[in-house]
Input
Amino acid sequence: MLSLWLRLCKLKLDKHLQGMHLLTATVYRLIQITDPHIRADSEATLMGFETRKGLDLVVAKISEDTTSPNAIVVTGDIAHDYSDSSYRTVAEAVLAFDCPVHWCPGNHDDKATMAVVAKDLKLGGDQIQLGNWVIQLLDSAVPGKVFGTFADTELAKARDLIASHPDTHLMFGFHHQPVQQGSRWLDELMIKNGKAFMDIVRDQPQVKGLFWGHVHQEEDQIQDGLRLLSTPSTCVQFAPKSDGFALDRTMPGYRWFDLYDDGHFETGVVRIDGIEMNVDFDGDGY
Ligand SMILES: [Fe+2]
Ligand SMILES: [Fe+2]
Output
């Protein structure tokens, strides 16, 4: 009788512990910042806006919201002047979080200088493993061009990752947009072979989402079950759905992701506040 009672107690305890396990599911916090467009001169401006100030304010905002992110990604247009010191400025700003930092190039980047600084400052490579998640960064930048293209090697990387990780939750990040976003001038500067890439990632249940920069604006849409996310720059913003170049009055910001063990994720954009956007709204490009 006593042993039956003990067994019942153990059964109850096991159920309780299982419930506790569900309540304490692991969540990984990933932060994306993008398009800081930093110059070596700390007071340099882009369209009238001090880009260094934007980066510093966004980093301060992240530290208000998240004490210890699990990883940070910077999705291109990092150094507007391609200088070694600009890359160091951006990397050191986010290395202050004491977590792995990863980056991929945009059209305003020099891949060789990025590689030197990444090695020197021990940045992570193009793949981020967080529990049962893999976040793969891809290179969409074409030297000397503003638009993007995925080289065959990058398309193969995506294809191979999906084939070799049937039970892993996957996400891809890069600089240029792979789909049109309804802004004529920006749509001309998208990834030229974006459709080939979308054909690879579409209808693959383990691929949960894609995120990028370049368009300096927030978007969050679902296509064929895939979450497609663009993220504001840490400096100036582009007006959505505009035929020609136009700036927007929205503030700089960043994107956070909470990645759950079961493969679902939550995400959102946070913007800085409390500053005047000193931007040259009449400018026609940069
Ligand atoms: Fe940019
Ligand atoms: Fe760009």
